[in-house]
Amino acid sequence: MNPFARMVILVVAPLLMAALWMDHQPTFKPYQEPVLVPPVSAVPFSGTAIVSISADLQNPVAPSAASLAQGKRLFAIHCALCHGETSVQPGLVGNKLKPPPPGLNHDLLKERSDSQLFQAISNGFGRMPPFKAKLAPQERWHLVNFLRIRK
Questions:
Q1: Phi, psi of 13 (to 5 degrees)
Q2: CB–CB of 34/28 below 8 Å?
Q3: What is the pLDDT of residues 37-82, one digit of tens each?
Q4: CB within 8 A of 125, min separation 6: which ones?
Q5: Using CA of residue 85, residue 61, residue 117, residue 110, what is the dihedral sign?
């Protein structure tokens, strides 16, 4: 046997044996012992809030300059691509949708309560996706405050 073939066999043999041993490792099904439990002092956090569609929520965030600035920043990141920077023309993604999303003009928003706007942002509306998993409740209220003053 040539030396190269012997070297290949010596290198590959342990790898093949390891593959055979892997079949006999202990495995656990989901929710089967041992189940890891969180530490006693741990605080659960899901990043989402449960919002009932029928709830009439009150806006806990005052429309301060800081809130409006935060809302404007969040609008530019999450909303302007579809709804547009201004209510006159849809954004880049909104132009590709048929029909395009509403421009969120002041008259349209004036007809809706803060709670309705918050729930539309949280749960989605029509083709609009829900943002409750992407934005914290306070961030969604900042958006509501910004939409109230947006032209």
A1: -55, -50
A2: yes
A3: 677 777 666 555 555 556 678 888 989 999 999 999 999 999 888 8
A4: none
A5: negative
Residues 6+ apart with CB under 8 A from 61: 67, 138, 141, 142, 144, 145
Query: In which residue are the tokens 């012992």 written?
Result: 33
- What type of residue sits at position 110? K
The domain limits of the chain are: 65-149
Q: Which amino acid is at 44?
A: P
Q: Which pLDDT band, with edges at 50, 70 and 90, does 121 fall under? A: very high
Q: Does the domain at residues 65-149 carry the CATH identifier 2.60.40.10?
A: no
Question: Computed from CA positions of residues 84, 90, 92, 98, in that sequence, does the dihedral angle turn out positive or negative?
Answer: positive
Cβ neighbours for 66, distance < 8 A, ≥ 6 positions apart: none
User: For residues 74 and 80, what is the distance between their CA atoms, to the nearest angstrom?
Assistant: 9
